[in-house]
Structures are given as C-alpha cells and as structure tokens.
Amino acid sequence: MTINLGIIGVGRVGRLHASILTSRVANARALVVADIFPEAAKSAAEEYRIPDYTTDAGELINSGVLDAIVICSSTDTHVGYIVEAAGAGKHVFCEKPIDHDLAAIDRALRAVDANGVKLQVGFNRRFDAGHARVKRAIDDGEIGQPHTLSITSRDPAPPPIDYIKVSGGLMMDMMIHDFDLCRFLLGDVEEMYTMADVMVDPAIGQAGDVDTAKVMLRFENGAIGTIENSRQAVFGYDQRVEVFGSGGEARTGNVHPNQVTISDASSVRRDLIMHFFVERYFESYVAEMTAFVEAIENDRDVPVTGYDGRAPVVMAMAGLRSLRENRPVKLSEIG
Questions:
Q1: What is the rounded distance in angstroms from the CA atom of residue 208 to the CA atom of residue 180?
Q2: Is the Cβ–Cβ distance between 58 and 6 less than 8 Å?
Q3: What is the per-residue pLDDT across 160-198, written as a single tens digit (0 to 9) for each?
Q4: Which of 27, 100, 149, 162 could form a Cys-Cys staple with 225, CB 3.0–4.6 A?
Q5: Which residues are CB-contacts of 199 (< 8 A; sequence separation ≥ 6)?
Q6: Are 117 and 85 within 8 A, CB to CB?
C-alpha cells in the first residue's frame, strides 16, 4: 500500500522531510510541496523529484490524491492547516509546537477527533536509538525505580533574533523537545521551577527572551528531574541524558562523527561532537516519519499523539510562569 503525501513549508525542516520521504521511507510517495515562496517550492520539488509544487496550501490539502499532509510551515499556521486537513479527511504530521495557545491547540485536536484522522506531532528525539534504549532500560526495570533525570541540551549558536521574536522563546522552541523527552522517559510532570538569564547575547534579552536556563521538575511518580539549556556551546551540539535509579543508571552521551581517539606525547583527544540537529538526529527523523506512514498503512495509533503535542506546551507555559513569578508552578495551574 502506497501512502501519498503533500508537504507544506519547505524551509530547513520541510526539505529534510522531503529528502527522507523520497529516499528513506518505504511505501511513501511525496506528490506535491507547497510554500508561500514560489522559488522555494519549485527548487524543493526539483531537488527531490517531487512531481508538483504550489504556493497555495489549500490547493494541496484539498487534492483528492493525497492521504496525508506534512506540516512544516511557521507555527502560527499549524492549527489552521490541521483543521483544514482534518476536514478534508487527511491524516496529519505536524512539526512542533502545534501552537503557542492552548485554546488553538484544543481546536485542532477537536477537528482531528471529529473527522477520525490521525495526528502525529514531530517530537523526533523519542525515536533516537540512544533515547529509546534508555526508555527500555527504565521500562524493563534494568535500573530499578527511577530517582532522578538529567537532560542537557545546548545549541552550537543562537538562532537569528528575528526567529526568537516569533518562536515563543527558548522554552517554546528549544526546551520543548526536552519537555517531551522527559515525559517520554518518566511520564507526566507535576511541578516545575525555572531559573534563567541572558548570558550569551544581550540582543536575546532585548528581544524579551533568555538564552540560558535550568528547570527543575517533579514527576507525578515522585522522581526529580533537571533540564539545562543554552543557546551556545562552542564545542558543538551538546545532547546528553542520564536517568539514575535504585538499581543503576542509564546514560546517553554526545555523538561524534567518528570513533577515533588520537594519543600522543602532548594529549589524548578526539574530534568535536556533531555540530547541529540535522547531523545528530537524522536517523530519528527517518524513524518518526516511517512510524507515521506505517500507522496510516496499518490503521494503528501514531506514537506521538496530539495530546503528546499539547503537554509540552503546557510545560513551557509553566516554566515561563515560574521564571516570571520566581516560584514553583504546578502544571494544574496552567490547564
């Protein structure tokens, strides 16, 4: 069975999905791309040998030949496209976050439920082989009862200021991945406390955001967690996870481009870690899109649901409220 897909938005992530759908996912066929910039749509279609392109996302959504829509456009367009796609009977893959507003997210989820279509949200880190192995160690009892979780996530350089102004900030566009990952590993969070500041670039503070943050979390199962984010790690894309329990520990480290260690009279050294998310998490993007296509093909539940997409937005809101009010915030205060 072949699943026909259309892609809305062919910026960096949209082109990544186009590449994967046309080369790495069995039984998937990308038939059309849409982008508000005609040259972007045309070049993506040509590069990935996709038959058609358009500047009209509505035309793509209402095409009778498509089974599913992949939404990679700006966050403020996500809900509208989800609602329209659901109304047209199309399954949806949507990049994170669904929206910055819970009422808008709930409108999208209602449309998905009312029309009986599937919605998968793009939290690809769940599909990373290392993170999946940590999850299995927890679920299989290899480390006993989990006591603490520590996630470190640092970018190699800050994004453009214009992006920060519309992205929702560090907690909504960057740490939201870590919020989802901690739920994936240890379940729902009850309470959060944030400390954060501007330590990398004053322009980020002038844009109303922070660039360095540490969040403490208490999970509903009693475990305690920390997430640390920075907009700049000069040595590359720093991605580490540790879960410590009554019977042991599960840990993932950074990924290097090779396994070579050089030893001489002056030092023992190796090459820097992977530079950014495309290199570090490429295979997880393949795995998540494969899972989406297979869920449609076999009519089973998607692995990252609309609720899974909503919960990290609630966490981001709680984290921001904690920062503003300098106190722990229960997620029940947000909704």
A1: 24
A2: no
A3: 999 999 999 999 999 999 999 999 999 999 999 999 999
A4: 149
A5: 211, 212, 230
A6: yes
